[in-house]
Design a protein that fits this description.
Radius of gyration: 20 Å
Helix content: 40-55%
Shape: globular
Strand order of the largest sheet: 6-5-4-7-10-13-14
Strand content: 15-25%
Structural class: alpha/beta
Distance between the termini: 49 Å
């Protein structure tokens, strides 16, 4: 086993511009091995995103932005039109790796807008502008997670029992995490939270990743099977549920790691608030509701073979393995964003949030 404290010494995603590499913590190897992967070509980056070597909506956005910048450095373009054609090809390719997480398409779209704004410049100047944009996305992620932590902490009291699912921690972002940000800030301020972590079948992101990073930071962590959450709530040991999300529709329906929906149903039954921690980059106002969110279907072997020496299912057994489920807005207590809390009814509240965000951006321009 690696020294868990070493996790805190590495960024989840980083750009090595000198060596033209995307540098990531390979999350498929945790907790048994802490390995830093240095990815040079677009095929390797695509594979790393697809295989969850890098994962988590915010981290994926940063990875995608850095990836398309690295691709742009190698475009053999003599002018803007050729550059834009190569960019569109690279954007489509990277987008295909993970269709549900909106941060990938959001970050690539933002990079495309920056490119278009620089159409009058030289190719070298466009590439330089793309690097600036990728680093801005990275820096904004850190600030957003810290703000989510502050807003989330305002909902919590010292000594609370908190439950989280999957990994919406620093390993899913650059720093702090989303759902874990209030936990980290609370630990710094003596809140003494008791944190319960769902193992998160079938890929065990809770057991492998969240438990690892929270333990490395010295927090009080107890790992449970996903099916144990109801019993804890019945015993009164859970005061709030904090989860991340990969995409939020305009009406407040939210896609997150498979297993979030039953957790929300149980929380509703036991009157435990469930908060979805969502940077605005994960909110997709172009998608009306959860029916419009494409759900990624993953390989059957993740259930039947991945963690076992021998196959744990009869030969030929059919397997249903969606990576995400969609929690209806009616089950969600509130969203915690970098701009504050969003309460029901969500559609007008989210519209207001984005109007205020746009106005704030214009006032700074």
């Amino acid at each position: 086993m690696p020294d868990l404290n070493a996790l805190l010494n590495h960024d989840t995603v980083a750009l090595d511009d000198t060596h033209n590499e995307l540098v990531i913590i390979d999350q498929t190897l945790l907790p048994g091995r802490l390995a830093i992967a240095r990815l040079k070509n677009q095929e390797d980056i695509w594979e790393a995103i697809k295989r969850l070597r890098v994962r988590g909506a915010p981290a994926l956005g940063v990875a995608a932005a850095c990836a398309i910048y690295l691709a742009a450095k190698n475009f053999k373009a003599r002018g803007y039109e050729e550059f834009a054609q190569s960019f569109a090809h690279a954007q489509s390719y990277l987008n295909s790796a993970r269709p549900t997480a909106v941060n990938v398409s959001w970050a690539l779209g933002r990079m495309r807008q920056r490119m278009q704004a620089c159409a009058h410049l030289s190719v070298n100047a466009i590439v330089a502008a793309l690097k600036d944009e990728a680093m801005a996305i990275r820096d904004e992620d850190i600030k957003a997670c810290l703000a989510i932590g502050e807003h989330g902490l305002s909902l919590l009291k010292p000594g609370y029992g908190l439950l989280t699912h999957c990994n919406a921690g620093r390993l899913a972002t650059i720093k702090y995490g989303t759902a874990t940000a209030p936990m980290y800030l609370g630990a710094q301020r003596g809140y003494a939270f008791k944190i319960f972590v769902d193992e998160t079948r079938p890929l065990l992101q809770g057991a492998r990743l969240t438990a690892s990073e929270l333990m490395a930071a010295g927090l009080d962590v107890t790992l449970i099977c996903d099916s144990m959450a109801a019993s804890l709530m019945r015993q009164g040991k859970i005061d709030a549920v904090l989860v991340g999300c990969d995409r939020v529709a305009a009406n407040g329906d939210a896609a997150n790691k498979i297993g979030t929906l039953p957790l929300a149903i149980v929380a509703k039954h036991f009157s435990v608030p469930i908060y979805f921690c969502a940077p605005t980059a994960s909110i997709d106002m172009r998608t009306a509701d959860g029916k419009g969110i494409a759900i990624e279907q993953r390989d059957a072997s993740e259930i039947t073979n991945m963690w076992y020496e021998e196959t744990m299912a009869p030969a030929g057994c059919q397997v249903f393995n969606p990576a995400f489920d969609v929690t209806p807005h009616s089950l969600i207590t509130a969203f915690i964003t970098e701009y504050g809390l969003v309460h029901p009814p969500f559609f007008p509240a989210l519209q207001k949030l984005f109007a205020e965000k746009t106005a704030a951006a214009r006032s700074k321009a």
